[in-house]
Write a structure and sequence with these properties.
By secondary structure, this protein is an alpha/beta fold. The chain has eleven helices and 17 strands. It binds NADP nicotinamide-adenine-dinucleotide phosphate and zinc ion (2 copies).
Amino acid sequence: MSKSKGYAASKAQEPLAPLTFERREPREHDVVIDIKYCGICHSDIHQARNEWSDYQEECIFPMVPGHEIAGVVKAVGGKVTKYKVGNKVGVGCFVDSCRTCAECKRGLEQYCSVATVWTYNARDKEGQPTYGGYSDRIVVDENYVLRMPENLPLDACAPLLCAGITLYSPLRHWQAGPGKKVAIVGLGGLGHMGVKLAHAMGAEVTVLSQSLKKQADAKRLGADHFHATQDPETFTKLKNSFDLIINTVAAKIDWNQYLNLLKIDGTMVLVGLPEKDVPVGAFALTAQRRSLAGSQIGGIGETQEMLDFCAKHGVSCDIEVIPIQKVNEAYERVLKSDVRYRFVIDMSTL
Ligand code: NAP
Ligand code: ZN
Ligand code: ZN
């Protein structure tokens, strides 16, 4: 074991504070990564505050959050073939999976039917707690490490590892592209990547945001249309309009209202994860043979495909870089939707 430094929540609802903890010694297939940047995902807040207790087993404290990890390879185990010291690499929401189930074999490790090993707030195959990216270093099996775009800034690419792939995967699965009308609900960390990626795929993109405050930003990011959901007319004007809606909102909103915006055979995909159940009426679905679906990040192969797509199309995230000492303040600002559009921690400040 070797010592690592980071920021952690000592228990639910506690502000994050410095922590020294142990990481495993690298094994034959491990890559040791010097973490340069880590994005702040809304899921970090949900977990550090134990907000998913209705759906999740107990949280593991102390918890070092962070699953949008970008860094540089510092050392490699003897049998590593994919990476060399000095490579720019990333780690997303998970660091291992069973590797043998049908889902793992299809490259859907995030849906591993045995156990996906999450980057933090989980236990690895030896039963040891995992610790995330608000830290100086991480040790990860090479098969769960990603290659970062060479032509884009590393800090602005860190959030691709969760926000980017979480939108890329459903956009691809439900075939966003030319001729498709796609709506993104909520212009936050996930939502702004949804706009950029759907636009790069050639879809006609609409943003549904609470107010008109982010309208100019949305247009700059690639949105064709923008509507405020505070205005009740939005829901009458846009009835039966979209092929695909991706809902990134973490709060409890009326999903039925949004389902009514889908045209025949349209699908609304939930990626936002509210703390409590949200009621759905059958009529909102039957009326136009609509579907309600969900999606969770993406597999390793698809995450690499997304990073390569971003490199090719020059897509990265709009970020505000902060020193780690401001992490608790950043959490409060995320909760107020006051982030343009992702906080990224500069780990040299640790
Ligand atoms: P975020 O940056 O906070 O963005 C969420 C956006 O939702 C806000 O910017 C805001 O956009 C809108 N919003 C917030 N409160 C609202 C309310 N009361 N009513 C309506 N809209 C509201 O969060 P994020 O990091 O993008 O994450 C969003 C959700 O996705 C979280 O629940 C997170 O845990 C989840 N998530 C899921 C996955 C997955 O794999 N499925 C992966 C990562 C994250 P406007 O200002 O434009 O209204
Ligand atoms: Zn995330
Ligand atoms: Zn598996």
